[in-house]
Here is the input.
Amino acid sequence: MSAARGRIASGSPEFRRINRAMAFGGFSIFALLYCVQPLMPLLAQDFHLTPAQSSLALSSSTATLALALLASSSVAERWGHKTVMVASMYSGALLSIACALTASYPQLVAVRALLGLMLGGLPAVAMAYLSDEIEPTSLGLAMGMYISGSAFGGMSGRVLSALLSDFVSWRIAVGLLGVAGLVAAWEFARSLPPSRHANAPRWRGPGFLAGLRLHLSDPGLPWLFALPFLLMGAFVSLYNYIGYRLLAPPFELRQAAVGALSLLYLLGMFSSMWAGRLGDRIGRRNVLWLVLLLMIGGLLLTLHDSLLAVVLGVGLATFGFFASHSVASSWVGRRAQPPQALASGIYLFFYYLGSSVVGWATGYVWEHWAWPGVVAMLGGVLLLALGIALRLRGLAPVALAK
Here is the structure.
C-alpha cells in the first residue's frame, strides 16, 4: 500500500487483484458492446438496410450507454462501486443472449439500446474506482492496463463474432459472447477488492449540478471532455466502415478476414500501457499531441489501394487512439476534484456520444463520397482533437496533475 492516504501502489497484491478484475471487466463490457460492429454488412443483408441504418445496432447501444454514464456516479455513491459494476456485467451478458433471440431489426436495436443502458454501470465507475484506490504515481499504469483489457475485449468481440458468423450465424455468435460475459462477471466479482475510499465519509460531496458546475469551471477539464467525442467518433467510424471497403473491390475479402482486422487491437493493448507509463514519467501534456499525430498518419494511409497499406494505416490509427485515450482519461482522473466519478462519467458520456453521432453520420458520408469522403471527414475531426491537445500543453497544473 502507498503511504500516502493508504492508496494501493503498483507491485502490491491488491494492485494485481484490481488489474485482474478490471481486465475481465473491460473484456466483457467491450466485447458485448462492439461484437456487432463487424456484423453490420451481414445485418444490412439480412434485414435489407443501408450502411447508416445497420450502424444503429451499435450506435443505439453507445448512445444509451453515454446517458447511463451520467447517472452511474450517483448510483455508485448510493449502492457502492463494486455492486454497480457487477450488476452491470451480469445484466449486459443476459441482454446479449437476448439479442440472439430477437425476431426483427427494430427488436434488435431496442434490446441493444437496453444493453447499452445496463453496460453504462461499469466504465465511469471503473475509472472512478481506480482514481480513488490507486496512488497517483501508479494511476497512469492502472488506467492503461484497464484500457488494455477494454481493447482486448473489443478485439475479441469483433474477431469472434466475425469468425463464428462465417461458419454458423451472427445470432449464435452474439449468444455465445453473452455466455462468455456471464463467466467474466463471476470472475470480476470474485477478484475485485471492495472500495476502501469511495465509501468512506471523508467528505460530503456536491450534488450533480454543483459537481457539474465545478468540473466545467476548471480551465482544463472542458477541453479534456471534448477530446473523447472527437477521438472515439473518428476511431469507431474507421472500424465501422472499413469493413464495407474491404468486402468490396479491389479487396473482396471474406467476413472472417475483415473481422481479423480487429486483431490490431493488440497494438492498442500495448500502446495504452506504454502511453500511461510515459505520461506518468514525462507528463501527459508532452505525450498527447504526439500520439494524436500517429492516429492522423494512420488514417491517411488507409487511402491507398494496397491491402498492406490499409492494414498498416488501421494499425497505426489503433495504436494512436488507445494511447491518446489512455493519456486523456488518466489526465481527467488526476485533475478532477471530488466528485471524481462524475468527471469520469462526463468524459465517457462524450466518448460514447461521439461514437454514436460521428459513427452514424459517417455512414451517410460513405454512401455519397465513399472512402475518400470518410477519410476527409475523420481527418477534420482529428485535426480538431490535435488543436485541443496543443492547447492543453499550456494548461497550468493543479495539485497532482501533470
Q: What stands out?
A: The chain has one domain: 13-392. Confidence is low (pLDDT under 50) at residues 199-204. The two ends are 23 Å apart (CA to CA).
